[in-house]
Amino acid sequence: MLDYIRKVFKFIKRNKVENINNEEAEVYMAKFGLTNNGHANGQNSGNNGEDGQDSKKQWNLKRFFKEWVWDTNGDPYYYWLGIISCAFAYNLICVIGNHTRSVFFELENGPYWYLWIIFDAFVDFIYLIDMFVQSRTGFLEQGLLVRDLQRIRKVYLKSRQFRVDLLSILPIDLLIRPIRACPYIRFTRLVRYPRFTDFIDRTETRTTFPNAFRVCCVVFYIVVIIHWNGCIYFCISEWIGLNTDTWVYGTKNIQSLPEGIEDTLGRRYVYSFYWSTLILTTIGEVPPPFSDVEYVFVIVDLMVGVLIFATIVGNVGRTEFQAKMDGIKQYMALRKVNKQLETRVIKWFDYLWANKQTLSDQKVLKVLPDKLQAEIATQVHFETLRKVRIFQDCETGLLAELVLKLQQQVFSPGDYICRKGDIGREMYIVKQGKLEVVADDGIKVFVTLQEGAVFGELSILNIAGSKNGNRRTANVRSVGYTDLFVLNKNDLWNALKEYPDARKLLIAKGREILRKDNLLDENAPEEQISAEEMTEVLFGKLKTVQTRLARITSEHISTKAKLMKRIEYLEEQLKISQNETTKSTEGLSA
């Protein structure tokens, strides 16, 4: 735990606040509390020395508490999750999970009872600090990290998470301790379980040994479950009465307390753990139950044991996603990819998992018949596609076919969707997030594209006379995490083959838009035939020639056969005629 704290403060010292040099970008970023350092690295590289000296003078603890916002993808936040997870594990194992103090009261009322108060107070203090951390933890909006402290605090105080956190730190156990020690009341600390699972998920993403880590997690969960069940068994034994029969703990149960073995706290705990292991794993024999309560408990235990272990061992909800991520991590390690790029890749996977985007729409809908796929895709994406200006007056059938072609892509902060001069092969629709159209230097921002914006639609139409051709005319960069719908050029033209009228309409609209922007050469033909289309036309003509040639060849063969038969017939007739002439000549001579 102390190691985590040291790492947090080391990271804070390394990441001191720098001056913002780009005033235009600062105005735009201000509402999200973002700096422009990431976009102006080139410009600021020569001033690192002076900026570093200024930041050292300005940096102090007071400013840290006033301005620091926790980034959920940053290392400090991850280390803090490790600290709060240790506190949760204490409550889970020592107080709640295995009921050690709630069942074995010798621990709670023994000579070291004051140590439990110290530990409980320390863990509760960590829980309290965690509420402060969450009140300063930024969240993603339109793919951007919100850093406005007042807004973050307002959202947290109104959230369900705040009420849950408040419930988890109510010190009821300390208030009633002078009257009676009751560790059961600390069960409310269990509601911090989501913080623990968040740390597990992030560690599974970050570690270079994910399989070994998953095995450790499974072992941990199994041990905790066995603790729970073992302590419940001892609690039921005390409720029924120790030494009552051969099932409960006591001298009559030879397995639990054979002759010559002293009845100690350690013996009670170890046997309860042993009994729980046997009953949950069903790999050994335990004394049979006698009373109805004992039978019910054993039946429930066997059913729960089967269900819980099947759930833990067979939990494959993240198997496919983790397999892909593990493969990429191994590849990056093998190819010695630099740490910065590796971190970007891991954060991209984290964003996908956090936003439930581990599967594409195509994979999810693949199991459905084509009719249902079309209906779902139309209901989800139809209105989005109709907002595109070149598609506003198109046939419904064409739009219904195009919605099945839309593919979703996620871009990380700072990624370029396209650069000026690139060949345009796709059009993009912004589903969520923000994009910037920037100059070649990457600093000056011309315009910001928000949710619902469309770009690149003209470059996939192959409009004849376009002065830009099919080239991109601007640099488009993602500000935060941005979700885009992508329509491929080939998919569009394949769909337009069945809709020739819609094709003419789209080209006419594209020419009109280019004409307004003075980007159209009026002397060019209205429709330009692409190389693919020209190839298809040539193939069609070739097939026609081949068909005609085959027909001519067939006719030639048929005619030749008929002529041969006629020649043979004439030859036979000639021979007959010659024979008759010869006979008649011989008759006259005689």
UniProtKB/TrEMBL annotation:
One of its GO terms (cellular component) is intracellular cyclic nucleotide activated cation channel complex. It is a multi-pass membrane protein. Signal peptide: none annotated. Residues 390-504 form the Cyclic nucleotide-binding domain. InterPro entries: CLZ_dom (IPR032406), CNG_cation_channel (IPR050866), cNMP-bd_CS (IPR018488), cNMP-bd_dom (IPR000595), cNMP-bd_dom_sf (IPR018490), Ion_trans_dom (IPR005821), K_chnl_volt-dep_EAG/ELK/ERG (IPR003938), RmlC-like_jellyroll (IPR014710). Coiled coil: none annotated. It holds the Pfam family Ion_trans. The keyword NAD does not apply. Its main location: membrane. It comes from the Eukaryota. Keywords: Ion channel, Ion transport, Ligand-gated ion channel, Membrane, Transmembrane, Transmembrane helix, Transport. The chain crosses the membrane at residues 77-100, 112-133, 212-236, 295-316. GO terms for molecular function: cGMP binding; intracellularly cAMP-activated cation channel activity; intracellularly cGMP-activated cation channel activity; protein-containing complex binding; voltage-gated potassium channel activity. The keyword Transmembrane helix applies. It is found in: Membrane. This is Cyclic nucleotide-binding domain-containing protein. It comes from Enterobius vermicularis. The lineage of its organism: Eukaryota, Metazoa, Ecdysozoa, Nematoda, Chromadorea.
